[in-house]
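Q: For a teaching session next week I want to show students how multiple molecules come together into a single three-dimensional assembly. I've collected the sequence lines for a complex. Could you give me the predicted structure tokens for the whole thing so I can convert them for display?
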Amino acid sequence: MRKIGVLALQGAVAEHMRSIAAAGGEPVAVKLTEQLDELDGLIIPGGESTTIGKLMRKYGFMEAIREFSAQGKPLFGTCAGLIVLAKRIEGQEEAHLELMDITVARNAFGRQRESFETDLPVKGIEDPIRAVFIRAPLIKEVSPEVDVLSVYNGEIVTARQGHLLVSSYHPELTDDYRLHAYFLNMAEEAANRKKA
Amino acid sequence: METGTSRVKRGMAEMQKGGVIMDVMNAEQAKVAEAAGATAVMALERVPSDIRAAGGVARMADPTVLEEVMKVVSIPVMAKARIGHFVEAKVLEALGADYIDESEVLTPADEVFHIDKRDFTVPFVCGAKDLGEALRRIQEGASMMRTKGEPGTGNIVEAVRHMRLIMGQLRKVQGMSKDELYHEAKNLGVNYDLLLGVHETGKLPVVNFAAGGVATPSDAALMMHLGADGVFVGSGIFKSDNPEKFARAIVEATTHYQDYKLIAEVSKNLGTPMKGIEISKLDPSQRMQDRGW
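A: Of course. Below is the structure for the complete assembly, covering every listed component.
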């Protein structure tokens, strides 16, 4: 069973852990950098990206997660996690991990009263999934290496670049575990590649 | 596409988990709070201890306070409406507040009815002293709960009492047989199905934060140990000697509430916390937690 960490500094940690368990993985709440060694993949959850970014810097997660990524181990960022993984943030000079070659716009749909849920088709998953957008960011630009997995109203909301996966919305707030299963599969492939 | 669904509203509160929400009175304080790592700010004219000192009728803040704060921070901005004052709440929603606190800190506008919170696209947070009160607010559409504590006192004892009581009652309901639940639902004045959900999960269906009297990093960590999903800090930050340092320390103590060495470190040389009030010295008419039911 693949061990998937959920970065547990702030945000929807328990929901991701529940979804990973339901999709057949073993979830681990990650509060310390040392814990990364035992993992096959890591989720950076939704929450407040500014807060999560600050705490990541404070506790040495910036370097540790970049190292984790350099080993080809998969990362999955949802909402705030997407912002944390992006190379560029619109209107901001500094980004966080700068791992995925995308430009994101924060709070792109507006304030909380504009938050919504909808059925969303995702490439590689058979039927649409239920996607919950909460003060959600959008992916404005992607490099050619990035595979766009879904588009909502002409805007990119799910994408993958090799071992990196991101969604603007919150799959962990529903009982549909298929995106988590998709990520578990990425972790499985990465682990097998390493063995080979 | 659907806006304002209960999943969208409750989800917003889920994203606040493990975080600290801070009271701010202007744009400058909001920036300090965001820089310290607050997950949201509560925009108001006066923090609870000032409301206490000022006396008179406490109302919704001037809309310019909310607008100024919304302009300078990217984290969610909350605002308080009086209990039962659905027009104040509609005004806050129209202004773009991300969350409304139907709060006992303000003078109640209605002595019988709380706001019908299902009638809003924005989510609501409400205070509760016990399980029945929490479930009645959730029934009315609250998407997040918090303890009432005794706001503006810098005294954690009441928040502890409320959290202990709610957690104990959750365990009691979880241990009941199904036929006992009907009677308990009547006792608590709540819907049977809602109570059945609590019986099955042992938890409230929404996030529950600690509020009312949090004044030090250890206070925040204590509330996390007792089962809070996160912490509201009102007067505790901007009534302390060094708000920036206090704010950062409370954020760190909330994240790492089991790391006592770290809490010791962040608690060093913080200066004087807000001056507190011993609850027994408080005239009963001054108790805010008794507002709402």
